[in-house]
């Protein structure tokens, strides 16, 4: 039986690294995980208890396609609390993780063959989802002087139907300030292109608050998730905010593609939004880990790093150490017992000379991982 050409997507290399790390652990080794962008903490305690109560009293069947009304209202209220944005809950769509939101957004906004710009380095699944939908991903090679974020001049001559940006970004952790975000929104609107803002790392910021595109325009798709700040990766629940006249379009797609996001996850997500004390305690761990990484990675020989304004990653230029980041990551795993992600996941052109280090795990793990990396590099 034949396969479609649309199905010919590249593997998500970090998942291959995770599998290699799992096999090493199965063989009895202790591996320090710096490869995966996943909080080491679980869902907030009250979120778990809310689900227990719901399971005792509710069959937890389908919800409406746009999500539980109470959750949509609470998400809208969060935009007032975090950004002073007055958001109509009717524009909020609860999704099956941010991945479900990407599928809905790309399907709602673009026709087959449309060209959609994505920053490189950037989250690899943007590229693969676009390809699988019959769209054309256009890598925008970002520059260090622009904090590895796109700028309006990068868009010239690309004939884009849309632009996807992420701030804080994966893998770099860099953010767009208000002026930079406004400039990109203006450039896409001038070109008649759609603007999509991936904001799933909002809440995980250190020295400045991230800017939401909704502070600047209503004519954008904004995507977020409960996976990162709310520590609910495996629950597969996220949301997006769309222009008012796009809600029914997205609703029809969601009804047919997903029916709804998992009811149980929506119940837990609603409770998680009021667990600020626990969530801020998690953020304090990331902040401590970030400082350890900024001090420890250069001591281990990884000194060319992007400025991690948010998220929980450090992206390092290792061109002086290797021209094959995949082989280098495998060597680090084998000899140091530390799992890291090759940059090829994020940048097909320049990723052979970069690595991503995640500091989402416990502080003790980060300290041990840095010690192992330093020893490995000293003896390499």
Describe this structure in words.
With 380 residues, the protein is α/β, with parallel strands linked by helices. It is built from 11 helices and 12 strands. It has helices at 13-26, 45-57, 69-83, 97-109, 124-132, 178-190, 247-257, 263-272, 276-300, 325-336, 363-378; strands spanning 32-33, 92-95, 115-120, 136-141, 162-166, 194-198, 221-225, 238-241, 313-317, 338-339, 341-342, 354-358. The radius of gyration is 20 Å and the shape is globular. The N and C termini lie far apart (48 Å).
pLDDT below 50 for ≥5 consecutive residues: which ranges? none
The main sheet orders its strands as 2-8-7-6-5-3-4
Which H/E pattern describes the elements? HEHHEHEHEEHEEEHHHEHEEEH
Ends: how far apart?
Answer: 48 Å
Q: Which percent band covers the strand fraction?
A: 5-15%
Instruction: Assign a percent range to the helix content.
Output: 25-40%
- The number of E-state strands comes to 12
Biggest sheet features: 7 strands, mixed
C-alpha geometry: globular
Count up the helices: 11
Mean pLDDT: 96
Computed Rg: 20 Å
Structural class by secondary-structure content:
alpha/beta
List the helices and strands and how they pair.
Elements: H1 13-26, E1 32-33, H2 45-57, H3 69-83, E2 92-95, H4 97-109, E3 115-120, H5 124-132, E4 136-141, E5 162-166, H6 178-190, E6 194-198, E7 221-225, E8 238-241, H7 247-257, H8 263-272, H9 276-300, E9 313-317, H10 325-336, E10 338-339, E11 341-342, E12 354-358, H11 363-378
Parallel strand pairs: 1-10, 3-4, 3-5, 5-6, 6-7
Antiparallel strand pairs: 2-8, 7-8, 9-12, 11-12
């Amino acid at each position: 039986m034949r396969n479609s050409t649309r199905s010919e997507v590249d593997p998500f290399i970090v998942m291959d690294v995770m599998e290699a790390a799992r096999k090493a652990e199965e063989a009895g080794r202790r591996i320090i995980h710096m490869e995966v962008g996943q909080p080491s903490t679980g869902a907030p305690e009250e979120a778990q208890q809310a689900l227990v109560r719901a399971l005792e009293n509710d069959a937890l069947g389908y919800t409406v396609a746009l999500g539980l009304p109470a959750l949509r209202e609470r998400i809208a209220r969060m935009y007032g609390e975090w950004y002073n944005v007055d958001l109509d809950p009717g524009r909020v769509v609860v999704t099956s993780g941010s991945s479900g939101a990407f599928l809905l957004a790309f399907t709602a906004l673009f026709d087959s063959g449309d060209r959609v710009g994505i920053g490189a380095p950037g989250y690899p699944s943007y590229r693969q989802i676009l390809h699988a939908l019959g769209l054309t991903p256009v890598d925008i090679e970002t520059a260090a002087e622009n904090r590895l974020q796109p700028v309006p001049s990068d868009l010239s001559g690309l004939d884009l139907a849309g632009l996807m940006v992420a701030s804080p970004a994966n893998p770099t952790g860099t953010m767009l300030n208000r002026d930079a975000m406004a400039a990109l929104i203006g450039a896409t609107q001038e070109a008649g292109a759609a603007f999509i803002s991936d904001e799933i790392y909002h809440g995980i910021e250190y020295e400045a608050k991230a800017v939401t595109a909704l502070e600047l325009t209503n004519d954008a798709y904004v995507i977020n998730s409960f996976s990162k700040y709310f520590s609910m990766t495996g629950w597969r629940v996220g949301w997006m905010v769309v222009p008012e006249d796009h809600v029914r379009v997205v609703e029809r797609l969601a009804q047919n593609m997903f029916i709804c996001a998992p009811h149980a996850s929506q119940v837990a997500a609603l409770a998680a939004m009021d667990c600020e004390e626990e969530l801020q305690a998690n953020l304090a761990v990331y902040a401590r880990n970030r400082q350890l990484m900024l001090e420890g990675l250069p001591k281990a020989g990884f000194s060319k790093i992007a400025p991690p304004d948010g998220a929980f990653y450090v992206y390092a230029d290792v061109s002086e150490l290797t021209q094959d980041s995949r082989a280098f990551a495998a060597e680090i795993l084998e000899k140091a017992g530390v799992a890291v992600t090759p940059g090829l996941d994020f940048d097909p052109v320049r990723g052979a000379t970069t690595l991503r280090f995640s500091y989402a795990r416990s502080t003790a793990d980060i300290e041990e991982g840095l010690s192992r990396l330093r020893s490995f590099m000293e003896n390499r």
